[in-house]
Design goal:
single chain, about 575 residues, alpha+beta, Methylamine Dehydrogenase, Chain H, Immunoglobulin-like, 4 domains, five-stranded mixed sheet, four-stranded antiparallel sheet, 7 helices, 31 strands, elongated
Length: about 575
């Protein structure tokens, strides 16, 4: 089994990980080697009590610039300044040390109580103040909240103070969050499910533990595992419980269940981490890792007038990019990878109430031409819609066989948008909200204005042909239908009808005997090249542009023939 995993804050090749009962290892990702660094018992010490889920914590040193501290704990707290090669015990037993809860060798029955899951009176969570490494908070699985402001020389047990808020005595301390904005502010989650109590408990202090207040919400479900405060906006709080992720925009006064970015509503949230890039990583039990990318809208929402019916947030300039085209491959000795966040510009908006009307998003280019239509979510709260950098697809000539053919793809895939300034407009009923944004060059990956402009021009040449062909075939079909309705056609009308039918069969695939495409008529050939351009990341080279000219010339002949037969 695996539990805590902590990367070194200064060396991307070093990771700390453990199996149950404090079996901590330092792993070098570059060499693939692993070293056991679990603190060992010294002569005269009582037996160590390691929690099944022993804490591992890294924190930058405030005394040694460029260095960091590594912490772990059983009933004692240990600190290392050399990646776990050496440990210093910096506390006495910080638990209740209740001997009645330490008889694993004498309990059990059908199975033995000796897997370390049964160990009790252990330290479960800890946190170092980011401004002062001498300030450390420790929480135990038997209800103690311990505090030191002198690096462990003396400790104060603050449990009685938090119990005074109404939380159950001796409830498990599951998480401690020290505010990055306020040295005196600390948040603590507690859980009591071992006693059949599945309520979430969250308390906070604003005076370094002297007094505490309990936060509550009817929105919460499931006992609490983790709390995090946004380092940029201290009013923005996240609470992870056995049954979901909850968000507060006002420092904990009010909470809402997160339904943001398709996160499952009732997933079990074990841990939360806010990255320096402003993304929220969500560690779940059984559902993998989710990332709510770009918290800027939530941060802005916490400062917004939430009485507004709709808020359309500024759209970040997007440096042109696409997701990697290479396959990720199979698992290897170093582990596995999952899909990364979308490489797409996003539109985020807030709805005070669920919208009963459709939410439409329209994108306009710098000339005011509408190039893309998107459907938005109607849910109460924050909504997010991605744009795939494509424009609306062209009209494609109908009829014949299209299933699974590039002809079908041509009707749903649009040209790639070039570099430039755009405007997004959200339409809800008769109300409209707009934001301008930019697509920026990315020369490092070859996405330059010149290349994407040329690609767009080449694609639009065949986009135009596709649409003209659509209208031509539509007119041709109507002309044929009109002639067929004539019960007694003249010889000339019959000849024109047959010639129109022959022309149609040169354009549209009408015969299919196998699962493959037995004909490569003009519409298919046109769609092949058009799709190649729509999905390309660069323009056709001069040696390829002849294909565009050939198709344009063929269409000119088709159009001339149709005009003759009209």
């Amino acid at each position: 089994d695996g539990f805590w995993v902590q990367p070194s804050p200064i060396n991307s090749n070093i990771v700390y990980a453990e199996s149950q009962g404090g079996e901590i290892n330092r792993i070098n990702l570059k060499t693939g080697l692993s070293y056991g660094i679990k603190p060992q018992r010294n002569p005269g010490e009582e037996l160590h009590r390691w929690n099944w889920n022993t804490p591992i914590v890294t924190a930058m040193s405030t005394k040694r610039p460029g260095s960091y501290n590594l912490y772990t704990a059983n009933q004692f707290l240990y600190k290392s300044t050399d990646e776990g090669a050496n440990w210093t015990k910096i506390s006495p037993d910080l638990t209740t040390n209740d001997k009645a809860k330490q008889k694993t060798e004498k309990s059990g029955g059908v199975t033995g109580d000796n897997t370390s899951a049964e160990n009790h009176c252990t330290i479960f969570t800890l946190a170092q103040d980011p401004r002062n490494e001498d300030i450390i908070w420790v929480g135990t699985d038997d209800g103690n909240l311990q505090y030191t402001n002198n690096g462990g020389k003396t400790w104060a047990n603050l449990s009685e103070r938090i119990w005074a808020t109404g939380v159950p005595k001796n409830a498990w301390i599951s998480c401690i969050e020290v505010s990055a904005a306020n040295a005196n502010q600390v948040f603590v989650t507690l859980e009591n499910h071992m006693y059949g109590d599945h309520k979430p408990y969250l308390v906070s202090t604003s005076d370094a533990g002297k007094t505490w207040k309990r936060m509550q919400s009817a929105e919460w479900t499931g006992f609490a595992h983790v709390v995090r405060q946004d380092p940029q906006n201290p009013e923005l709080l996240f609470l992870g419980t056995e049954m979901g992720l909850f968000i507060s925009l006002d420092g904990g006064a009010n909470w809402m269940r997160s339904k943001y970015q398709n996160l499952p509503w009732y997933t079990l949230v074990r841990d939360l981490k806010i990255s320096t890039s402003g993304d929220l990583a969500i560690g779940t039990h059984g559902r993998g890792i989710y990332v709510l990318d770009n918290l800027s809208s939530l941060r802005a929402l916490a400062k917004s007038d939430l009485n507004k019916e709709v808020i359309f947030y500024p759209v970040k300039a997007f440096v042109y990019d696409v997701s990697p085209q290479t396959p990720s491959g199979y698992g290897n000795l170093e582990g596995w990878t999952a899909g990364n966040k979308a490489y797409l510009p996003a539109f985020e908006y807030y709805l005070k109430e669920r919208s009963s009307q459709a939410v439409k998003i329209m994108i306009y280019d710098s000339k005011g031409n509408k190039i893309k239509d998107l459907n938005g979510g109607t849910a109460k709260g924050l909504n997010k819609v991605y744009w795939g950098l494509d424009q609306n697809p062209c009209k494609v000539a109908t009829g014949g066989f299209t299933a699974g053919s590039p002809v079908l793809f041509a009707s749903v895939i649009g040209p790639r948008a070039p570099i430039g300034t755009y405007k997004a407009v959200i339409s809800i009923g008769d109300k409209k909200f707009e934001q301008s944004f930019q697509l920026l060059e990315n020369p490092a990956k070859g996405f330059t204005t010149a290349k994407l402009d040329l690609l767009f021009k080449q694609t639009m040449r065949l986009f135009t042909v596709q649409e003209e062909l659509y209208y031509l075939v539509d007119s041709l079909n109507k002309r044929m239908t009109a002639l067929k309705k004539i019960e007694t056609r003249t010889a000339n009308e019959e000849r024109i009808l047959q010639q129109l039918d022959s022309l149609r069969k040169e354009i549209i695939e009408t015969n299919r005997k196998t699962v493959f495409f037995d004909e490569f008529k003009y519409r298919r050939r046109l769609s092949d090249v058009y799709i190649a351009l729509c999905t390309s990341l660069e323009p056709f080279s001069p040696s390829k542009t002849g294909a565009i000219e050939v198709l344009e010339q063929e269409f000119a002949l088709i159009k001339r023939e149709f005009e003759r037969l009209r």
